[in-house]
Amino acid sequence: MDCADSIGRLAYMDIEKIRADFPSLKKTFDGKPAIYLDNACVSLRPRSVIEAISSYYTDFGGCARRALHGFGRATAERHERSRAEIAAFFGVKPEETIFTRNATEAINMVARGLGLRSGERVITCELEHNSNLLPWQRLAQTEGITHVRIPLGKNYSIDMEELSGQLAKGARLVSTAHISNVTGATQPVKEICGAAHKAGALVMIDGAQAAGHIPVDVREIEADFYAVSFHKMLGPSGMGALLGKRESLETLLPLLIGGETVTDATYENCSFSPLPWRLEAGLQDYAGAFGAASAVSYISKLGQENIRRREELLGGLLMDRLSRIKGLKLIGNTDWKERAPIATFLIDGVPSDQLAELLDSTENIMVRAGKHCAHPWFNANGLPPALRASAAFYNTEAEIEKFASTVEKLSGTFF
Q1: Are 240 and 349 in the same domain?
Q2: Could you tell me if 210 and 285 lie in one domain?
Q3: What is the pLDDT of residues 190-214, one digit of tens each?
Q4: Phi, psi at residue 282, to the nearest 5°?
């Protein structure tokens, strides 16, 4: 059975009913429907998430924990309930769930909070998002840490033999993406955590591309730190979380300090709050937390395994269809069973940015063109900006076919 036949048999997901939950999918431009294939950047939001976000402003509007009045109590209760729901979704405890603006802030919180010193080593993969590269680059420049980059091995995942060799030389931290936003490759994160812990190193996982797409149990993975961005998993923008082991989170120095992070203060000193509030400075994005909890609830109702299977097969259809286009070069493993539904590619003689603009202007097909926040890897390999199409469970087979056929048609106009 090929991937297209398999998709047709996924009766457990009523795609048209699901699509009706997403207001953005009803948009048309010049009478043509919008085809959204930029999900690796930002996912669309179901109506329930939008309503949850709005509920803070319409029903509460207060300040949690600092206010004892009715609005304050209601906000605090809903905020902490949201935290508990999100924690349960990822297999951690509420106090092990730190709210941030996004995965970028979460990674910076770890980078700054560990108090890394000159000579200490941090290991990453050579292909990381800028958010998991630039913080270590800056610490190398300012604090003198050693940033080691492991080359890609089989199937575009980290070379475990090279990692073991580097861990033998000592390391404070290993930090890598769970799923690459460029190649769609999934890292063996549990194996990485096991090897790192055996060598006495901590592990930071950038889960921005994994959370909401595949089941993620942070406790089972045994990650010390796990960063997520809710805008990539049906939730609001400007909302993320740092998850992990309590004992590891408690070692972090706060990235920011001020209101909410302390229980008391004098002109000379202060007493810090316990987790999670010690690491959450200032008035929080309550609406964002409500929306994030609604997002994980929506995902749970659909079933994470159902979503994973649906996206795996959509990815297979995407890879299969693109592989037929003359001159197209896919970046990453061509085996659709071993990658997320992310197709980053180049076409000989076709500028990716122009192709992306034409896809949008002619057929309302929305994709991404550029170096995808992985500039060092693109530059080191002499690669020009590439075009990326990324599917989500609410995309249809017809949309993927329309995308591929339009790419094929438009690419021919450049010759």
Answers
A1: no
A2: yes
A3: 999 999 999 999 999 999 999 999 9
A4: 80, 175
